[in-house]
Predict the 3D structure of the following.
Amino acid sequence: MKPPRLLTDYPLRAHNAFGFEVRARYAQAIECEAALACARVDPRLKGLPRLILGGGSNIVLTRDFDGIVWLIAQRGRRLVHEDADAWLIEAGAGERWHDFVQWTLECGWPGLENLALIPGTVGAAPVQNIGAYGLEMSERFFQLRALDMKTGKALHLNAAACRFAYRDSFFKQCESGRFVIVSVVFRLPKRWQPRCAYPEIERILAERGIVKPSPRDVFDAVVAARQSKLPDPAQAGNAGSFFKNPLLRPADFEALSGREPDLAAHPLPNGQIKLAAGQLIERCGWKGRALGRAAVHARHALVIINNGNACGADILKLAEVIQRDVYRRFGVRLEPEPTII
Ligand code: EPU
């Protein structure tokens, strides 16, 4: 197989959800695993820094990239196995996540509906273990196939090997660009139970008079919840939540809630307490406020938006001021959620 076409001085505006006008020295569209294997040993790219881009929805590109950008575009989705308990569904890493979720529902395989409308691709989903409205991707994950860019070997990783945690995985911990996800298999249990205890979803379903929600009802409620609060990247560039929700030890949380009443807090199975970063940012007065060409979204303080012609440095400057203010008031360090390049 010939290596994929090498694009030079390639504009990345359409490949990053903030819409920054940055360029890559080289780019290649990766449409199958063989193309990736070829690109790996392409002599023209030897020694260059590498960047893997899915939908570009969880990345802040602060500068031009002087290396090779691989645009993950591997398509395909299929039922790989069915038994009495579950369906196993595989999708190519370049499939759009939301389209995939919608397709599984249309095929009669529910289980991913709480993750509707999350921007990005299937291949990016395991990297940060996407989650929303009471469900994390790891709960529906079976295994993935990845190419080790160091050795050229393809490998299958199960959930344990992926080391999923809150917005975290093995792929965030290991050397950047070492493993490229090619496809993912999800396990959707046949004994479906609606997951709708999240207050906002509960409220939307109640408003709609729905007592026994179907998967489609949950999907519609999640879409409505997201559309009412989160900005559409086509309208205002953004990477969704800019910070992770901070995790506190119980003793630290006790001390903090003594000084700061009514903090939203979610206990995790490991004993830690998850705070709502959006609430901390709002209490610092940042909701809806701008700093230069970057701003905090007016309907959700956890989202930083490109107010028009912002660059990565504008976004990072605002993020730093927010981190400083939150730390001064709450003693809590906010960690960015997107990858910063
Ligand atoms: N809140 C505020 N002010 C705000 C925003 C939030 O006070 O401006 C407080 C409220 O108390 C609210 C609580 O924060 O009850 C939680 O807010 P929300 O339900 O919107 O969830 P979140 O914790 O801010 C997380 C995910 C989102 C996901 C939602 C829904 C992270 C970093 N973010 O946000 O994921 O859609 O839950 O499940 O965990 C993303 O990762 O890009 C993303 C959008």
Q: What stands out?
A: The first strand starts at residue 7 and ends at 11.
